[in-house]
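We modelled the chain as a single entity of 184 amino acids. Its sequence is:
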Amino acid sequence: MGKILQLKIILRDIEPKIWRRFLVYDNISFHELHGIIQDTMGWENYHLYEFDIGGDQLGMVDDDALDSNPKQINALKTKLFRYLQTEKQKFLYLYDFGDSWEHELIVEKIFDEIPKGVSKIPYCLDGVRACPPEDCGGESGYERFVEILETGKDPFGEDVVELKEWLGDWKPEEFDINKINKIL
């Protein structure tokens, strides 16, 4: 089945940090890793993404699109083991080019077999806090919604009831590892 990578993903520019630690096989594609990140972080896969590894950009390649990046490497066809081969290696993941959620990933460990106590791969080992809601407006929008939930007031004076309704049951401090592993 290949080697197993222990990855840590950290959402940049948010304090306190939002992160996850999870296991994946190194013979999956970067597109499959994107899907695992979506499930692990709690994103809903509404937007485009891109990985940046040492200046190489991997994402969805559309050969017919006029505005496509001719240098972009096809994430559907590229396996992790082609790029991720050493512990402590870092790379970037950008999700939602509008809100620009930038994540740093670190290859923490590489295993030859499934670690004890782990029942399946992919598998989430640990993490903290909920990811921001989709389409909330990036870092400043996230901070606004946290303030609304904490104070009951909107710094922009909009209808708080309507904004809370839009947020639904989202709680910024919530992290449910069992729910994530059921999804994975």
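As a brief sanity check on the tokenised model: The helical segments are 30-41, 138-151, 160-167, 177-183. The first strand starts at residue 4 and ends at 11.
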